[in-house]
Amino acid sequence: MRNRGFTMMSMLFILVALAALGVGLASLSQRQQLGSAGELAAAKAYEAALTGLEWGSFQVLRAGTTQPACFGTKSIALPDQLAGYTVTISCTRTPASGTVSDGATTLAFYNVVANACNIPSAGACPNGASTEPAYVERQLTRSLSIPITP
């Protein structure tokens, strides 16, 4: 008779231990999935910023050697695989007008900045007010020097 009570207590202990192990594994799995989703979102934000950087560089370089002015700040909502991401591209020229001489070469310098995020503020990135845990943002910068022909 005494062995039946002991067996029941052993089974109850094993059941509680297995339940605790199951809860721990479920929590670990959830954290791992959230981490993977965050890494994927960060990679997409990087690719969105790179897309904006390429677009901005093309806008400057397509003018050739004619001293192009910088384009205004532009925000683009991206399609297809990057749907849900917005990139904001800006350009600054140094000097703002005119050129810089380096020996016999005349140059104009451009700085293109692309900010990409998945939760834009008023259609633009970055969103400094976002408190969403899923918010990701990437910023890339490219400096361009263009030789100018007189």
Mean of all residue-level pLDDT scores: 86
The count of strands amounts to: 5
Main sheet specs: 5 strands, antiparallel
- What portion of residues is helical? 40-55%
How do the SSEs run, as a string of H and E?
HEEEEE
Taken from the alpha-carbon principal axes, the silhouette is rod-shaped
% residues in beta strands = 25-35%
Alpha-beta content class: alpha+beta
Tell me the domain tally.
1
Poorly predicted residue ranges: none
Evaluate the radius of gyration: 28 Å
Tally of DSSP helical segments: 1
In whole angstroms, how far apart are the ends?
Answer: 107 Å
What would you say this structure looks like, in words?
The chain is α+β, with helices and mostly antiparallel strands and 150 residues long. The chain has one domain (2-147). The protein has one helix at 2-61, and strands at residues 74-77, 86-94, 100-102, 105-117, 137-147. Strands 1, 2, 3, 4 and 5 form a five-stranded antiparallel sheet that branches. The longest helix has 60 residues, at 2-61. The chain is rod-shaped and about 100 Å long. The model has no long low-confidence stretch (mean pLDDT 86).
Features:
single chain, 150 residues, alpha+beta, five-stranded antiparallel β-sheet, 5 strands, 40% helix, 27% strand, rod-shaped
Layout: helices, strands, pairs:
Layout (H helix, E strand, L loop, with lengths): L1 H60 L12 E4 L8 E9 L5 E3 L2 E13 L19 E11 L3
Task: Write a short abstract of this structure.
The protein has 150 residues and is of the alpha+beta class.
